[in-house]
Amino acid sequence: MTTKVMRAVVHEGAAGVGGVRVAEVPVPQPGPGEVLVRLEAAGLNHRDLFIVDSRTPADPWAVLGSDGAGVIVATGADTSVEIGTEVVINPSLGWAEPDVVPEIPAILGVPTNGTLAEYVVVPAGNVLPKPAHLSWTEAAALPLAALTAYRALFTRGGLTAGEHVLLPGIGSGVATFALAMAKAVGATVSVTSRSPEKLARATELGADRAIGSGGDWAAELGEPVDLVVDSIGSATFDSCLSVLRSGGRMVTLGATTGPDVELSLRNLFFRQISLLGTSMGSAREFSQVVALVTEHRLRPAVHRVHELADGPRALGGLASGEQFGKLVVTIG
Ligand SMILES: NC(=O)c1ccc[n+]([C@@H]2O[C@H](COP(=O)([O-])OP(=O)(O)OC[C@H]3O[C@@H](n4cnc5c(N)ncnc54)[C@H](OP(=O)(O)O)[C@@H]3O)[C@@H](O)[C@H]2O)c1
């Protein structure tokens, strides 16, 4: 019997984007409880860059990518998903409930083979019907960033209607989803960026206040905020704390500019600030994301779309940070 092959964006050899290429690899087969998805599109994340930077020439080839959307074309035993269903893939593996956080959260796309390929195998519980109003590229942009934004805003951040949330670095995929979701539930949303173009885009998408990253945030906002959801990290940590009201919350989910900060505990305890960490989310939260996106007809901000053959270059472009929203690769 001949093994079927597919095109995929793989990493093999030298660490970094230099080790990324398009290759022909075997089409995976679903085992019990798994489904085979023929991918129409896949989204890129900073995680893909972190993965390739952390690998060594001794590691075997691996298919990159955590985000994807496509069609179920085969199922293993013990699955009830129908062949032909159009789905979005939840990249969070083995995490069912929001409050039962796994010790080491597993994410689709290395060590398991990922979505930058013509086919991917995932557990049947990790697919949900694609929201009908989204195109394939929009659906593929959704999973990781939207799940992270949802958990950061609501499960961890406790955002409610009428509250004021600040989203620093609005160009990031997570922040653009957070903007859409926070507006959908009736929050006031302020954003920061180093780029006037990104501030203008955010205002078009509904941001109430858009301020430059380099200024005095507290002065420019004019009022303290209830919640900050940050992924910039060390470069703007002090500014984030400075804008919170007493009793406010800060949720941190990334460290694009570095993870190490200096913290005055007095600043936390006197002002009764809650500093909360978050990462990805559970299957229940993913279904809540899909429901929210469907109910409010939210659309991801897609910055640019590439062909699969252009995957390695697209990944290199992610590092530049010039994007507003997501980079997506079309496959189908
Ligand atoms: N924990 C999780 O589950 C999870 C999930 C997804 C992402 N993340 C993390 O979240 C971060 C965002 O990821 P991403 O891929 O969406 O976006 P990204 O490309 O890392 O963008 C981050 C934003 O940070 C801002 N920024 C970068 N350098 C800055 C500096 N020196 N000063 C001020 N602002 C700066 C930029 O905003 P402007 O260009 O607007 O200024 C940029 O849009 C990454 O660190 C990623 O690892 C974590």
Order of helices and strands: EEEHEEEEEEEHHEHEHEHEHEHEHEHE
Structural class: alpha/beta
What fraction strand?
A: 25-35%
Distance linking N and C termini = 26 Å
Mean pLDDT: 96
Radius of gyration, in angstroms, nearest whole number: 20 Å
Strand element count:
18
Count of helical regions:
10
CATH names the topology of the largest domain as Quinone Oxidoreductase, Chain A, domain 1
Largest sheet composition: 7 strands, mixed
Tell me the helix content.
Answer: 25-40%
Any low-confidence stretches, pLDDT <50, length ≥5? none
Oligomer: single chain
Note down, in words, how this protein is organized.
The model has no long low-confidence stretch (mean pLDDT 96). This protein has 332 residues and is of the alpha/beta class. Strands 3, 5, 6, 9, 10, 17 and 18 form a seven-stranded mixed sheet that branches. The chain is globular, with a radius of gyration of 20 Å. The protein has helices spanning 46-54, 136-141, 143-156, 173-184, 196-204, 217-221, 237-242, 265-271, 283-295, 311-318, and strands at residues 5-11, 20-26, 34-43, 62-63, 67-75, 86-89, 92-93, 106-107, 119-123, 127-129, 164-167, 188-193, 209-212, 225-230, 244-252, 274-277, 302-307, 326-330. The chain has two domains: 5-142 and 300-330, Quinone Oxidoreductase, Chain A, domain 1 (Alpha-Beta Complex), CATH 3.90.180.10; 147-277, NAD(P)-binding Rossmann-like Domain (Rossmann fold, 3-Layer(aba) Sandwich). The longest helix is centred in the middle third of the chain and has 14 residues, at 143-156. The protein is 27% helix and 29% strand. It has ten helices and 18 strands. The site of NADP nicotinamide-adenine-dinucleotide phosphate has 28 residues, from helix 3 and helix 4.
